[in-house]
Amino acid sequence: MSSDSVSNLMKGHMESLAAEGKRADGRGINEFREVKIETGMINTAEGSSMVHLGKTKVLCGIKLLIGTPYGDSPGSGTMTTSTELAPLADQSFDPGPPREASIELARVVDRGIRESRMIDFDALCIEHGERVWMVYIDLHILDNGGNLFDCCTLAAAAALSNAKIPNVQHGIADEDVDLPVTCWPISCTFGRLGDTVILDPTSDEESVMSARLTVAHDEDGNIRAAQKGMNGAFTDAEVREAVKTARKSDNVLREALKGI
Amino acid sequence: MSSDSVSNLMKGHMESLAAEGKRADGRGINEFREVKIETGMINTAEGSSMVHLGKTKVLCGIKLLIGTPYGDSPGSGTMTTSTELAPLADQSFDPGPPREASIELARVVDRGIRESRMIDFDALCIEHGERVWMVYIDLHILDNGGNLFDCCTLAAAAALSNAKIPNVQHGIADEDVDLPVTCWPISCTFGRLGDTVILDPTSDEESVMSARLTVAHDEDGNIRAAQKGMNGAFTDAEVREAVKTARKSDNVLREALKGI
Amino acid sequence: MSSDSVSNLMKGHMESLAAEGKRADGRGINEFREVKIETGMINTAEGSSMVHLGKTKVLCGIKLLIGTPYGDSPGSGTMTTSTELAPLADQSFDPGPPREASIELARVVDRGIRESRMIDFDALCIEHGERVWMVYIDLHILDNGGNLFDCCTLAAAAALSNAKIPNVQHGIADEDVDLPVTCWPISCTFGRLGDTVILDPTSDEESVMSARLTVAHDEDGNIRAAQKGMNGAFTDAEVREAVKTARKSDNVLREALKGI
Amino acid sequence: MAGQTDMELIKDGVRLDGRKPDELREVKITAGVLDNADGSCYLEWGNNKIYAGVFGPMECHPRHKQKADRAIVQARYTMAPFSVNDRKRPGLDRRSSEISYIVSQAFEKVVMVEEFPKASIRVDMQVVEAHAGTRCAAMTAASVALADAGIPMRDMIPACASGKVNDVVVLDLNKEEDNYGQADLPLAIIPSTGEVVLLQLDGHLTPDQFEEAMDLATSGCMDLYKIMRDALDKSYGGKK
Amino acid sequence: MAGQTDMELIKDGVRLDGRKPDELREVKITAGVLDNADGSCYLEWGNNKIYAGVFGPMECHPRHKQKADRAIVQARYTMAPFSVNDRKRPGLDRRSSEISYIVSQAFEKVVMVEEFPKASIRVDMQVVEAHAGTRCAAMTAASVALADAGIPMRDMIPACASGKVNDVVVLDLNKEEDNYGQADLPLAIIPSTGEVVLLQLDGHLTPDQFEEAMDLATSGCMDLYKIMRDALDKSYGGKK
Amino acid sequence: MAGQTDMELIKDGVRLDGRKPDELREVKITAGVLDNADGSCYLEWGNNKIYAGVFGPMECHPRHKQKADRAIVQARYTMAPFSVNDRKRPGLDRRSSEISYIVSQAFEKVVMVEEFPKASIRVDMQVVEAHAGTRCAAMTAASVALADAGIPMRDMIPACASGKVNDVVVLDLNKEEDNYGQADLPLAIIPSTGEVVLLQLDGHLTPDQFEEAMDLATSGCMDLYKIMRDALDKSYGGKK
């Protein structure tokens, strides 16, 4: 039987399950997999975290370097996000230049942090127009079990919450202080399986779903970011419903983040 | 019938026509297609032009930025020319890194402007050794109907003639002034069809011609640049004759340029 | 007969010869090919050499430029080594980005010079933290007859010994002086042909040998660098024996270097 | 999306450029402006200026991207170096790559890709002047170019953003609103079914504001859809 | 390998980190830590932290690298940007390329490549925290991951460096010793035959010191080999 | 081509390096200097120093460049980093790419490409010391290397520039003349037919000066042609 036929069989099976509100791993359609967050394991990083979301594992390291600000924002620090889809994480990952899917992932995670103004960039100014802290968020995906969007966003939040500004090492101040964080955007990603919308898809579910919707809220229930992906569609009603579901469902991730 | 055979038939037909002094579009062998020049359509550019040469359409934008001069010419502005063969301009254009033909085009247009000293680079110095104007000439090819060399050179000349130095915006002086232009090099490109040399080849003619010769003169009839291309040859007499023809034939382009 | 079979025949023949202590070109197993060193042929370089090792020919040029030191060594000059496997040197050399084998070659030559501290980098400081001499060692391989490692190392040593610091041209001092060299590391490369270890393999021998070992000593008989390559192995005893052999065999190269 | 500005972007229900909150900038669309492309479009949307061109269905390169049972859409969004105040370096940056990718996927939903196995449909969008909202403008131009090329489609895709400035939900952000506003929500829909094929959001919206922004962007898409059809009618009329 | 330092790196036979000259840093190895990889390993060696993952045997890409009569090993060594004090730019630099290349070749000696014509065995080594000796640590982790993946091998390859500090030959340089020491000699051997599959050397060693350094590195490899086998036993035990 | 200099480059009909206006710099050509290449040449032209090597006809890579009915010529012109006073970055820059491209095309006119369908003839030109006029010198060296390789050709292609300094038309510009002169016209011809296969021009020439420059460059090419044939005769002689 060709791999296409296998894939079609799996697709049919998963869609039927979803239509009955069930999933292959026993979860409900709006339920997250088990989440586990550890922090501070990388001594060479200013902040670090390892997040397990089901079988997905992402290691995040934060580096804080001193640099010059951009000309159009002389009083603000800068931020760079990159995602490394390590070849050991997935058989299909090619080593080499980032592909479009990887660029989309990095940009969605980056925007979720940047545009929500999670980091107080103005507090990262050392000397106006001259020296600012540059925040590098490097996401190292070690095991791709699906839903990299939410796992990466969570890992970045956890590592940022763990990060210290290395004032002492650079002779800026007498003590290292926490990186200034203003809000906690948490993303929830949905997939469309047939006519059902499910939360937190596994990699098996991702391989047969037709559309993806990622929605991030802050701790006050305001929406901070969204991204629809893949070549299927959602109805207007599905989009609005997913946003409401996200507002309720992100609690489990939010609690895990508070627990660290 | 294979596309090679079609191409051979077309080649034979066009060569026969040319031998009789005729062309597929009814022009004489030393006649330019209709030329149309518009300027100033791009508000984000310091200068801009759109040139139609038959079906060929090229949009040129000039940007003027402040930078540091090269060490070996501390009192001169700089210039960079790039050509973008937009994928929408030609089915055969691959998106991706510039190919050799595109590099040749950009370099011939660049040299035609640079080596003729069309722009008075010394007048682009703001502060000796410290700050100069950097001129960026970006040629956007929107429709490739043949003879990109002449259309691009003309578009660059038109956009340069339309460009203003943005003194006010950068606090350099109280008013914006015209970019200083010293001469008007205009190029004429010839193709060899069988044993006949024709002016301003269309893309159909380019696909069957064996050699290309581009010659640029200034308004005083002095030759400023030349480039022979493709894997055919010209006789010595053909080269000298083409240069003379160019001197006469560039008037139609020169008039169009003056008319803007 | 397939090229694999030819190659297998050649392999068998060469291994049998080697087992008897003989080689296709009549040399003994621990004998270098004829070496010839010329220097100073490139006037645009601060130092230059051409080394012939059998049929292998390498041209090396040294450029000395003024630049800023690295932040972690403000009082030291810098060094960059690059190898160019010119397409004319070998039918199998692809033009294009450096392949892994070429990177290994450049890095082994570079380390042999850098880590042995052959060049006195501290003497290349012009102004502490501000200006230092940057040494560029460019190795141009013109003919690949095998054993590029030793030929490149020797060419670099010869060109460095020939190099003058261009003080006068840059207004640093009243006269140009020799580049300060502290020791003379010379490398000897061995190949494993069947169960025999041979010195200075030709390109034919390289194509059938299973492992490579490069060992560099200084003039006092101290080992300065080593690199094992290829997907075969050496016994511990072979490694130790090769190191001893290298110490004796590098004399012929050392004499050639002194003779320039 | 600075989100924290004192700048007054809307006053007494009137925006800096004179528009009401639910008003689009002026949109002018001309189909069939290029000779070589199988279909093309020139679009002005406020001061945005965009060319779109379509080739195909044609053989898909590189081969390993071919799909055995359908065509793929290879959309490419680029900005000319002179399209912004600071010169943009030529070539595909990460932002352009992401837009190209999500636009390609949105079009695969409406183009009848199953009719052309192994083929590619190439859609090129060239932004030659940019003043906020170029991804929506480029998608809109691309839809018209696809229709002009006669590529079989279920529908065209109008694309339009809503957003928030000074706590007011507004349609179609201009450049100042994009720079100093509080949220931006680009949306592309299939008018005949109401399905959402592209949705992005940055900034800050309360639950109610999100509902309002969705309503507004959807209604903007429907207005735009009429302008797109008029442009095609005019083009077909002109060709007769 | 500054080679000319006044820094006292060893005093009365005790090194800065309290080790004796012939002592390894602590090595902790866990096999089977990743789900997707066919085999995997997490290794801590002093403060070095490394993940290794193996896929294969699988079809070899790109095709022109295929060998008609055997598999190839495609090893890839990379350092995470946050693995060092100054942030490292992501991607394969020249140092990583060289290490990847020589490690690939070393494994082709022990993996039964002749059993899998045209195939590729992919070995990925991710250094997530680096404190000297990462190439040996990465190779060691890769051996365990290959065994965990059930790839047929003649043997595993322990890899360990010896070196010289303050004129004393020592085993397994730490970061200070690597920065200010006089020589570094990474070695990888096949324990069952004693064959050398990887050997590099930078610095300055007298003939006698070279012999001593070879002895020390070899003995370090044998100590390491035991830790590797214990980790695999524990992993197999755990799986039962 | 500064074109506006007060520098006296020619005085009483004598140039800075002592040459008359119509005089070539000294040219020394040696064929067959490399072992691996099928044909090779070392050329000194004034202080210019160039190696050329030829391989082929051989299978054409990459495949999509193959021509069904003829061979292609893949010429590659590069300058060594140490060939100029300021170090040149290694690799193909835009200038080298253009020269490689037009030189490839020029040789396709004279090599009997129709005899070798689908094949490639690789021509590599390495400039190891540069003092103006290197593209002509490299082409000349390549012609000799092609002949040395026994590649069937209609003729060799001598290449030589004329130019203008202090309003005087001169042959074969040296470095100062190239930097401070008024025009440069590199020309390559087929001696047996007089056809022009390469022509470039930068600078400023009146109509009469252009005619004179063409005459002078052509005559320079013919002088050079004799030197090329002598070098080959000597090489064949030496091989006997």
Automatic annotation (TrEMBL), chains A, B, C:
The keyword Transport does not apply. It holds the Pfam family RNase_PH_C. GO terms for molecular function: mRNA 3'-UTR AU-rich region binding. Keywords: Cytoplasm, Exosome. The keyword Magnesium does not apply. Gene3D superfamilies: GHMP Kinase, N-terminal domain (3.30.230.70). One of its GO terms (cellular component) is cytoplasmic exosome (RNase complex). InterPro entries: ExoRNase_PH_dom1, ExoRNase_PH_dom2, ExoRNase_PH_dom2_sf, Exosome_comp_Rrp42_subfam, PNPase/RNase_PH_dom_sf, Ribosomal_Su5_D2-typ_SF, Rrp42_archaea. GO terms for biological process: rRNA catabolic process. It comes from the Archaea. Residues 31-166, 185-248 form the Exoribonuclease phosphorolytic domain. It is found in: Cytoplasm. Non-catalytic component of the exosome, which is a complex involved in RNA degradation. Contributes to the structuring of the Rrp41 active site. Component of the archaeal exosome complex. Forms a hexameric ring-like arrangement composed of 3 Rrp41-Rrp42 heterodimers. The hexameric ring associates with a trimer of Rrp4 and/or Csl4 subunits. Belongs to the RNase PH family. Rrp42 subfamily. This is Exosome complex component Rrp42. It comes from Marine Group III euryarchaeote CG-Epi1. The lineage of its organism: Archaea, Methanobacteriati, Thermoplasmatota, Thermoplasmata, Candidatus Thermoprofundales.
Automatic annotation (TrEMBL), chains D, E, F:
InterPro entries: ExoRNase_PH_dom1 (IPR001247), ExoRNase_PH_dom2 (IPR015847), ExoRNase_PH_dom2_sf (IPR036345), PNPase/RNase_PH_dom_sf (IPR027408), Ribosomal_Su5_D2-typ_SF (IPR020568), RNase_PH (IPR050080), Rrp41 (IPR011807). GO terms for biological process: gene expression; nuclear-transcribed mRNA catabolic process; rRNA catabolic process. The keyword Cell cycle does not apply. This is Exosome complex exonuclease Rrp41. PANTHER family: EXOSOME COMPLEX COMPONENT, EXOSOME COMPLEX COMPONENT RRP41. It holds the Pfam family RNase_PH_C. Its main location: cytoplasm. Keywords: Cytoplasm, Exonuclease, Exosome, Hydrolase, Nuclease. GO terms for molecular function: RNA binding; RNA exonuclease activity, producing 5'-phosphomonoesters. Catalytic component of the exosome, which is a complex involved in RNA degradation. Has 3'->5' exoribonuclease activity. Can also synthesize heteromeric RNA-tails. Residues 23-152, 155-219 form the Exoribonuclease phosphorolytic domain. Coiled coil: none annotated. Belongs to the RNase PH family. Component of the archaeal exosome complex. Forms a hexameric ring-like arrangement composed of 3 Rrp41-Rrp42 heterodimers. The hexameric ring associates with a trimer of Rrp4 and/or Csl4 subunits. GO terms for cellular component: cytoplasmic exosome (RNase complex). It is found in: Cytoplasm.
